Amino acid sequence: MQAAWLLGALVIPQLLGFGHGARGAEREWEGGWGGAQEEEREREALMLKHLQEALGLPTGRGDENPENPVGTREGKGTWETEEDYEEEEEEEATATPSSSPSPSPTPEDTVTYILGRLAGLDAGLHQLHVRLHALDTRVVELARGLRQLREAAGDTRDAVQDLQEAQRRAEREHGRLEGCLKGLRLGHKCFLLSRDFEAQAAAQARCVARGGTLAQPADRQQMEALTRYLRGALAPYNWPVWLGVHDRRAEGLYLFENGQRVSFFAWHRAPRPEPGARPSAAPHPLSPDQPNGGALENCVAQASDDGSWWDHGCERRLYYVCEFPF
């Protein structure tokens, strides 16, 4: 095939050149006659056809495009393309396998597939069991940590309670010492006046926090000593001061804060008319006889000027006097 191409490349240009030279001479000699030119083209086409048949080349390209020489690059490229296309078709035909029906699965294949799936499921369950075991271990560790934390919190709470109790004991001891050092010491008791305005219940709580209670004069001697102490501390003014006496449990039943019943009283009495003056049935408007509040006034306060007792509403804010043991 290559030898034929080489021969065509050498011979055809010479023939074409010879034809063109002859045609030029005829044109000069005949003066451009159209019939001679047509005969020249037919002769060239016939010679090209015989040459292609002799060389075994395809004749279609020469007939369709006689102006394209056989030995040119375009013609050669066309032949190469056709041959390559034929070779590719042969290779595709050779490479394409013959289609055959796929074999149907046998019972053994089905069993093998099922066993494989079961094995995969068993492996997955094993992995799940391992993870659940790890999770259970973590939960146990977390529960142990929480238990230890709860125990530590309990110990801390106990320590805080111990500290608070120690602080309360220190405050009570400090209040007792302060009451006996700054206040009035009388036998086994000490009285200390507080100039803070508090309700009766709040005053009792303040006294208890300092290790004492609201003053509870047990007899007239203690009452007179407390009167002198309050008069000297608050003179020249007259201030009511809370005592630890009330009748909240039952009207007319006066008790101390420790629950003991009051054995004597020092209620305020209105001024008596002078001898020879006609007595008046109307009570004194500024200092009526006490107690006169009924169920509305259930707590007792002592006047600082004369030591008399007055009943007041328990929510009224007054000075108070604490009592401490000695």
TrEMBL record:
It is found in: Cytoplasm; Secreted. It comes from the Eukaryota. One of its GO terms (molecular function) is carbohydrate binding. InterPro entries: C-type_lectin-like (IPR001304), C-type_lectin-like/link_sf (IPR016186), C-type_lectin_CS (IPR018378), CLec_Tetranectin-domain (IPR051663), CTDL_fold (IPR016187). One of its GO terms (cellular component) is cytoplasm. GO terms for biological process: ossification; positive regulation of cell population proliferation. Residues 1-21 form the signal peptide. Its main location: cytoplasm. Residues 54-110, 274-297 are annotated as: Disordered. The keyword Signal applies. Keywords: Coiled coil, Cytoplasm, Disulfide bond, Glycoprotein, Growth factor, Lectin, Osteogenesis, Secreted, Signal. Residues 146-173 form a coiled coil. PANTHER family: C-TYPE LECTIN DOMAIN FAMILY 11 MEMBER A, TETRANECTIN-RELATED. This is C-type lectin domain family 11 member A.
